[in-house]
Design a protein that fits this description.
The chain is of the alpha+beta class. Helix content is 36%, strand content 31%. The protein contains 7 helices and 9 strands; from the N terminus they run H-E-E-H-H-H-E-E-E-E-H-E-H-E-E-H. This is GNAT family protein.
Length: 194
């Protein structure tokens, strides 16, 4: 797993056909376009939203990432962009630390619709989970998803995450509500799996 190049802001190979790099300002139009797709934002509580909301959210993450690269450190809200070897935007993934809980991180991913069903979310989640435990001294990595987002929870289960709980009727979807599923993996789980 090549993490030093990623930490320096350079792209790394996620697979033979996909590269991953830390988020930059030039990625923002592709991210905003993806989040505006109704098929993508069906399972995102924060989308759709006005462009200014996305700029306000991602702006500080991008600034922190630029500062971290310059200092030779990992960003506080580690966010990566995934592109194929031709440069086509495929999606993004994140590994933010959990505020006030040292050693705890959350993994998340959003893919452009044309990137669905190719195992990209699984590859990205596996990479970031390994990075959390091997580079960031993580004790635990968690994730959550809509119970109706079968692809997302199957991705987490393929990566070795265990379902830890459910919040009933949590997310508003259409005229009803859907449950929120919680997943987690401890360092001991990660070591046993690998």
């Amino acid at each position: 797993m090549s993490t030093l190049s990623l930490k320096k802001g350079q792209p790394v190979a996620l697979t033979s056909t996909l590269n991953m790099s830390l988020i930059t300002q030039s990625d923002l139009p592709d991210i905003i376009d993806m989040l505006g797709n109704p098929a993508v934002n069906e399972y995102l509580f924060f989308a759709p939203a006005p462009v200014e909301i996305y700029e306000g959210f991602f702006g500080p993450i991008i600034e922190n990432t630029e500062s971290a690269i310059a200092a030779g450190e990992w960003p506080e809200q580690l966010t990566v962009v995934i592109r194929n070897t031709k440069g086509t935007y495929m999606g993004m993934a994140g590994l933010p630390s959990v505020m006030f809980l040292e050693g705890n991180f959350e993994v998340g991913y959003q893919l452009a619709e044309h990137a669905w069903g190719q195992g990209i979310a699984t590859q990205a989640a596996q990479y970031l989970t390994a990075l959390a435990f091997n580079e960031l001294s993580a004790h635990k990595v968690t994730a959550d998803c809509y119970a109706s987002n079968v692809g997302s929870y199957k991705t987490l289960e393929k990566c070795g995450f265990k379902r830890e709980g459910c919040q009933n009727d949590y997310y508003k979807v259409g005229n009803g509500f859907v449950d929120r599923l919680h997943y987690g993996m401890t360092k001991a789980d990660f070591i046993a799996k690998n």
